[in-house]
């Protein structure tokens, strides 16, 4: 779907698009988060949120399956739950609304919506009603009910989805992997538009094409589009500083507008062709290029004909990578669900402008008693809570409230949205293809999980643990001669790496000796586990489970280092009374050879494993992932320091002017090259400040 975005503060070369109605925002009517709900950032304050380099091609991890079989429910708690719901029924409205069931700790157990709230709650209050074990367990744990009235059932549906994503109730279906999707942006705030990958708010003027299922799909498409249409991908600052064409021009992936290798009308025509291709008029664009190639060939201009031939080949490569390209579906999202072994997999395909823009597998958290239709309905509402829907949504299973869902999404989108389950024709074939993908994705994930379980079991035998660890935390730190010191924690569990729980620690101790790795490790562990202890004492963290049923407290802590690092970690653990957590240090082999590592544990002799031992390979993977993550965090800090270092000591140049200079010129090198007149054009930089900046760079030794 192509979307125009304009910024009133900027002048663009494109016509502003008509604005759509603002979508209904149930967040505005949402009350304050319920006390006792899972904390959003358990370690906020001391531990910075990670800048995680998530591989977008990776599928999400499997949730734990909650057994709801022959569970015996005590008569007393069930009666208390019925009484609590009966009290709520007396005050419940007969109008639409959303209700929340809470336990004794004030945690939200379940969020539901109803056209008639009183009638719905009454169905839970009847002790003789035949209900599934899952519902009975929920009632038994309920001590109070909170109700929010809405004007319509449509508003109730939107609010329910928003609250489920916010509160993550135990008895609801939960969409856990909720990353935003990337788009392709052709900018509209420069005479020579730029093509780039975009994620987040669509505030920059230009035309947006998407969504794409992954960053990889966007990158491949942009590369092919550069070959086909020769549109620049460089930043505006880089563009303005060029005096000769860059390498992309030499390898025929840019037309070179920066140095006027192509004139304005010619470049504008290339941009128009690219927009036409992404807007679904690909066949017309290919026919035009083919005609130009034939014309050039007939006039014996073979080099020009070869250029058109290469551009046609690039367009064909885009469509060949897309796999299925439907003939009758212009714009649609397709959802197919497959259940096996108590797990659910939802495969999502994106079709825009008659092209397949990728697919992604999701593994929502849902108890085994949920039917495919129930999982799909809840998944759909949460999926579009913060994403624009297309005009058509195709489902593999019919959901009970398809019309209500279509009405709610139409309100959000500002145009009519259809939700349907196709029964025949090409749409049915697309559903069958998606179901095959869902089945295969779940099969791969189940196989990977089984392999991970075997490795964790091997870890128990090798290290003498009491049970297989469900949460492993690995710590490492990085610095250059003590500068830009940063520590990092990565997390692994039964389903592999849990990347959304990675954390980085900016080393803060002022009295730290530069390069003292032991002191850095002590600081990181102290901050991490003091915070956990404080949260547990205040009742803010559960020592047994988080909202995703993964223990927040680790079973095993792995340190990158030898006996000295192990002793430093043990000293911290002993001072905090953390005897229940197993400690392991991994020392590199001679000459840092992989496969010759030595393992150290408190009170035990050093452990040496055979180079081909799967458990050793597993430990190496953990250590290497921590190393990759901490090095990436350190490089970002170092890059920031290098970028700003030349501006730190200029009198009268504060943070605001520093940012303005960097935003205007892009790099420190370009600021150094700038004349006094160019510096004076930067917003907020006066003539006197421009002179000081110029003199600073031209009087200091290099």
UniProtKB/TrEMBL annotation:
GO terms for biological process: nucleotide-excision repair; SOS response. Residues 1-64 are annotated as: Disordered. Residues 334-573 form the UvrC family homology region profile domain. Keywords: Cytoplasm, DNA damage, DNA excision, DNA repair, Excision nuclease, SOS response. It comes from the Bacteria. Gene3D superfamilies: 5' to 3' exonuclease, C-terminal subdomain, GIY-YIG endonuclease, UVR domain, UvrC, RNAse H endonuclease domain. Residues 54-64 have a biased composition (Acidic residues). Residues 94-173 form the GIY-YIG domain. Pfam families: GIY-YIG, HHH_5, UVR, UvrC_RNaseH, UvrC_RNaseH_dom. It is found in: Cytoplasm. One of its GO terms (molecular function) is excinuclease ABC activity. GO terms for cellular component: cytoplasm; excinuclease repair complex. Its main location: cytoplasm. SUPFAM superfamilies: C-terminal UvrC-binding domain of UvrB, GIY-YIG endonuclease, RuvA domain 2-like. The keyword Metal-binding does not apply. PROSITE patterns: GIY_YIG, UVR, UVRC. Belongs to the UvrC family. The UvrABC repair system catalyzes the recognition and processing of DNA lesions. UvrC both incises the 5' and 3' sides of the lesion. The N-terminal half is responsible for the 3' incision and the C-terminal half is responsible for the 5' incision. HAMAP family: UvrC. NCBIfam families: PRK00558.1-5, uvrC. Interacts with UvrB in an incision complex. This is UvrABC system protein C. It comes from Bradyrhizobium erythrophlei.
């Amino acid at each position: 779907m192509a979307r125009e975005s304009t910024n009133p503060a900027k002048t663009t070369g494109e016509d502003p698009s008509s604005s759509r109605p603002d979508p209904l925002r149930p967040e505005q009517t949402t009350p304050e988060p319920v006390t006792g709900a899972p904390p959003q950032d358990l370690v906020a304050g001391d531990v910075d949120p990670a800048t995680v380099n998530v591989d977008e091609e990776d599928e999400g991890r499997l949730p734990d399956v909650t057994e709801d079989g022959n569970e015996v429910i005590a008569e007393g708690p069930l009666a208390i739950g019925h009484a609590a719901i009966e009290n709520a029924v007396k005050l419940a409205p007969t109008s639409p609304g959303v209700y929340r069931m809470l336990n004794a700790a004030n945690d939200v157990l379940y969020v539901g919506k109803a056209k008639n709230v009183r009638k719905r709650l009454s169905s839970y209050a009847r002790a003789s009603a035949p209900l599934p074990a899952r519902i009975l367990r929920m009632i038994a744990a309920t001590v109070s009910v909170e109700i929010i009235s809405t004007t319509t059932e449509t508003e109730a549906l939107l609010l329910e989805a928003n609250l489920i994503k916010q509160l993550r109730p135990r008895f609801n279906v939960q969409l856990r992997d909720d990353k935003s999707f990337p788009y392709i942006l052709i900018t509209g705030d420069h005479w020579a538009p730029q093509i780039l990958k975009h994620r987040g708010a669509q505030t920059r003027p230009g035309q947006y094409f998407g969504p794409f299922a992954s960053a990889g799909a966007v990158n491949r498409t942009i590369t092919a589009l550069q070959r086909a249409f020769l549109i620049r991908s460089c930043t505006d600052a880089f563009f303005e500083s060029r005096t000769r064409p860059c390498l992309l021009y030499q390898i025929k992936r840019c037309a070179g507008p920066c140095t006027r290798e192509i004139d304005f009308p010619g470049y504008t025509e290339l941009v128009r062709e690219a927009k036409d291709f992404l807007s679904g008029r690909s066949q017309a664009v290919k026919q035009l290029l083919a005609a130009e190639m034939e014309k050039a060939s007939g006039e014996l201009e073979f080099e020009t004909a070869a250029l058109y031939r290469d551009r046609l080949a690039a367009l064909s490569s885009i469509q060949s990578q897309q796999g299925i390209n439907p003939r009758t579906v212009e714009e649609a999202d397709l959802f197919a669900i497959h259940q096996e072994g108590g797990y659910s997999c939802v495969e999502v395909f994106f079709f825009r402008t008659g092209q397949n823009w990728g697919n992604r597998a999701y593994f929502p958290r849902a108890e085994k008693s949920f039917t495919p239709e129930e999982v799909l309905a809840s998944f759909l509402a949460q999926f579009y809570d913060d994403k624009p829907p297309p005009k058509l949504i195709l489902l593999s299973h019919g959901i009970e409230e398809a019309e209500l869902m279509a009405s709610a999404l139409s309100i959000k989108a500002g145009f009519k949205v259809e939700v349907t389950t196709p029964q025949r024709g090409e749409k049915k074939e697309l559903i069958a293809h998606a179901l095959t993908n869902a089945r295969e994705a779940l099969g791969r994930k189940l196989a990977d999980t089984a392999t991970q379980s075997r490795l964790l079991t091997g870890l128990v035998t090798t290290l003498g643990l009491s049970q297989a660890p469900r949460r492993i935390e690995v710590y490492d730190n990085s610095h250059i001669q003590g500068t830009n010191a940063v520590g990092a924690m990565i997390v692994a569990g039964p389903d592999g790496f849990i990347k959304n729980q990675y954390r980085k620690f900016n080393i803060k101790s002022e009295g730290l000796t530069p390069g003292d790795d032991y002191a850095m490790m002590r600081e990181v562990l102290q901050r991490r586990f003091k915070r956990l202890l404080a949260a547990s004492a205040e009742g803010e963290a559960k020592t047994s489970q988080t909202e995703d049923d993964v223990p927040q407290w680790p079973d095993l802590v792995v340190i990158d280092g030898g006996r000295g690092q192990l002793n430093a970690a043990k000293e911290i653990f002993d001072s905090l009374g953390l005897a229940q957590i197993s400690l392991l240090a991994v020392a590199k082999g001679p000459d840092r050879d992989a496969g010759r590592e030595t393992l150290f544990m408190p009170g035990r002799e050093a452990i040496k494993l055979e180079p081909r031992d799967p458990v050793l390979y597993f430990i190496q993977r953990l250590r290497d992932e921590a190393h990759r993550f901490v090095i990436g965090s350190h490089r970002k800090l170092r890059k920031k320091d290098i970028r700003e270092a030349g501006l730190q000591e200029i009198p009268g140049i504060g943070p605001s002017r520093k940012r303005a200079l960097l935003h205007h010129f892009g790099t420190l090198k370009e600021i150094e090259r700038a004349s006094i007149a160019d510096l004076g054009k930067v917003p907020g930089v006066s003539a006197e400040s421009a002179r000081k900046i110029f003199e600073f760079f031209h009087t200091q030794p290099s």
